[in-house]
């Protein structure tokens, strides 16, 4: 028996019947020979973690732009925290951890420089709009490996596409594993952004509304623990009552939503960070417009996208793939005067 077959047999013994079994995957766009050791979702996880776009996440902003402290989150550390939370929830429910990990590691791979500030700029300047979840799928299917893509499974791509959105009306992933990542993303970023904001001196523990502290807990760890526990038990209760979906209880979901609204009002859209957000948007907009007017200055790969899919698509792909530092360096090269006469 191959190792992969043993792993697949273990899935049948340990996962609930509503989990996604690796030997029942809908498969890849291009069919491949099965691996002797790894299941299809293990292969997807490995392909994502070894990709260039994944490595660039370490220099992409989560919330705080150009921070010099070692402990502020980046898009990469956010991704790792989402994966950890999601795997815990998935294990508690009895779902496929390898699928969960692959979705979690790839969910933000399409994020742009300067976090959601950059996303707003690209959405405004590109006539087709821009959404980072859709771009994550594009990066993994059409940008990576020189345009070949990583040839990931349908389940992973669907989970990545549907990880975004807080509303109950948002489209859900067709796997429970994908739905777990969607909740884990919210649990991670709301709580670690509070932690970073306290570290930055913009909030303190007493700033958090008492109603949420009373229900979720006073510390970072207590809040995440409560949310993870509720997600596991509420989902198991859903399944027991033939409601096959991942969710929080109404009380806990209202608290998480309230905390998120609190962060939008005071931090994400707050006045304290507005000046830096506006600077980041200005930088990105100028770089975008420069390459829109000078597409021949882009690398050959992106020029070929311009020829095949149009100017805006090629420029958007180039800009979206940049890290914060790379974008700032380009801005300096393009627009900041240099000392040329001594």
TrEMBL record:
Pfam family, one: HD_assoc
Keyword Nucleotidyltransferase included in the entry's annotation: no
CDD domains per UniProt: HDc (cd00077)
The keyword Glycoprotein is annotated on this UniProt entry: no
InterPro entries hit by this protein: dGTPase (IPR006261), Diverse_Catalytic_Enzymes (IPR051094), HD/PDEase_dom (IPR003607), HD_domain (IPR006674), PHydrolase_assoc_dom (IPR026875)
SMART domains: HDc
EC code: 3.1.5.1
Domain HD: 75-190
GO molecular function term, any single one: dGTPase activity
Domain of life where this protein originates: Bacteria
The entry's keywords: Hydrolase
Stated name of the protein: Deoxyguanosinetriphosphate triphosphohydrolase
Organism: Clostridium homopropionicum DSM 5847
Gene: dgt
């Amino acid at each position: 028996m191959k190792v992969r077959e043993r792993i697949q047999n273990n899935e049948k013994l340990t996962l609930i019947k509503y989990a996604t079994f690796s030997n029942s995957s809908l498969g890849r766009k291009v069919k491949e020979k099965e691996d002797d050791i790894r299941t299809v979702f293990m292969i997807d996880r490995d392909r994502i973690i070894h990709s260039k776009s994944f490595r660039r996440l370490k220099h992409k902003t989560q919330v705080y732009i150009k921070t010099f402290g070692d402990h502020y989150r980046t898009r990469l550390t956010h991704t790792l925290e989402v994966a950890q939370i999601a795997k815990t929830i998935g294990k508690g429910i009895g779902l496929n951890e390898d699928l969960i990990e692959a979705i979690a590691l790839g969910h933000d791979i399409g994020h742009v420089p300067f976090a959601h500030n950059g996303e707003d700029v690209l959405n405004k300047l590109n006539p087709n709009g821009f959404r980072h979840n859709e771009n994550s799928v594009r990066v993994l299917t059409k940008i990576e490996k020189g345009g070949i893509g990583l040839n990931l499974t349908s389940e992973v791509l669907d989970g990545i596409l549907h990880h975004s959105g807080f509303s109950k009306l948002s489209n859900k992933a067709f796997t429970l594993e994908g739905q777990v990542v969607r909740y884990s993303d919210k649990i991670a970023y709301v709580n670690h952004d509070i932690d970073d904001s306290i570290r930055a001196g913009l909030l303190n523990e007493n700033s958090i509304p008492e109603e949420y502290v009373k229900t979720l807990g006073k510390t970072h760890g207590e809040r995440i623990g409560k949310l993870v526990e509720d997600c596991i038990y509420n989902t198991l209760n859903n399944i027991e009552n033939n409601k096959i979906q991942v969710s929080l209880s109404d009380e806990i979901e209202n608290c998480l939503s309230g905390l998120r609204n609190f962060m939008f009002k005071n931090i994400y859209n707050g006045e304290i960070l507005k000046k830096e957000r506006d600077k980041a948007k200005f930088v990105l907009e100028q770089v975008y417009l420069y390459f829109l007017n000078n597409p021949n200055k882009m690398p050959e790969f992106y020029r070929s996208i311009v020829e095949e899919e149009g100017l805006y698509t090629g420029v958007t792909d180039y800009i979206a793939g940049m890290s914060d530092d790379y974008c700032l360096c380009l801005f300096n090269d393009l627009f900041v005067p240099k000392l040329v006469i001594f």
